[in-house]
Amino acid sequence: MSLDKHLELRKRTKEFALRIFKVTQSLPSNRAGWVFGDQLLRCGTSVAANYRACGRSRSRAEFISKISICLEEADEAVFWLEMLYETGLFPESKLKTLIQEANELVAIFNASRTSARSAK
Hints:
The chain has 120 residues and is mainly α. Helices cover 84% and strands 0% of the residues.
């Protein structure tokens, strides 16, 4: 991956984390809102933090490990975002683009991991 693409994805994952933060701030102040919000905030911000760490990988194996964490956390974010609207805690219409972004990040991280695994 070129440096420009890496920096673009680094910015994109940080923006994703900020959008996740805003959603969690808007959740109701009840047990479900706190639990769902905590889980979503942890995995959503982890995507950005772990992608940032990918750029400091010292080996292909380390990169694969870190990008796998990004993939896992982005997929978990999709789960919690879906749970928010399926339980009625947050309107689906307000989550649609965020879910789309999370799914796109999952696809990007999966493709990056596949490429890194097949590189010789």
